[in-house]
Amino acid sequence: xxxxxxxxxSLEKGRSVTWEQRWHPLLERxxxxxxxxxxxxxxxxxxxxxDDHRPSFDPQCYLxxxxxxxxxxxxxxxxQVYVFDNDHPSxxxxxxxxxxxxxxxxxxxxxxxxxxMCYDPDHQRRLSHLENxxxxxxxxxxxxxxxxxxxxxxxxVFIFENNGEVVGVSNPHPHCQIYAFPFxxxxxxxxxxxxKTYREAHQRPLFQDLIQAERDDQRRILIDNEGWLAFxxxxxxxxxxxxxxPHRPVRQLTELSDLDIQDLAVVMRAVLGRLDGVLxxxxxxxLSVHQAPAALIDPEDYSLYIHIQPLLRAPGLQKFxxxxxxxxxxFLNDAAPEAHAQALMEVPLx
Length: 350
Known about the structure:
By secondary structure, the protein is an alpha+beta fold. It has seven helices and 14 strands.
């Protein structure tokens, strides 16, 4: 599929160059699309392909069935999804209050819960390798964890997967993490404010207008089934970035029916399969579940979506978040989202 990507880049030369600022309606900031820079000379580091030849069982892996973790706990001989409390949590359910600071600075306990979910006992499988019914089990587990942690009183449940060495994942076993916070994390707080501002200005839900805009355009849509729409957003900050949105507003995973989850599994499998095939090497990415806090007052202000942010922009080339992205907060995308969507659509599905 690397050949189809080269074809896409060649189409962007000359008159078809996309060089513009696009407004990100969820984060309320500009994204710079600079498609003429996609084929620029590169003398930096090259990203190696993810190792798809790992054994199905690794006796040194902390997450494989039956192995002992760093905490001393032994994993059960699990056959499907396995969830446990992180042995090295960033947040703790019982954290001592920090010492008081001056009146200028604010401080609070690093309270919360951190959970780890193994998707599958097979060490070498990826989320994209799971069958639809296996993906449904993962999604139902996400739903259950959201409900359980929300019932415990945590304000916000954030689910994410760091996939691949480029992202910095510490263990290649197929897994994700689930963080429960006593507050709403920054990105979701930004999106909540944007959704509220938009509805007050236009008397319409932001997410519904976003979905309609993509449907009207059609060029960036990857798959559209009974319940979900997957697309490369017009304002994509990352190469091959993908959003998966429900047709109807859904605040949290807890509001999804089993049929909703069945439809979502089909879409996710197709999207992840195309991402793994478009560059001729398994894609490294950050997958996250954007869902509302448990105490959202107005359900029209927000809708759940699955966000996939790939970190490879071309075969062997990593998308680095360097000076302008990290220091200035101004994202540059080196290819037009329309071109990335076209390349993804050319990947045959199994």
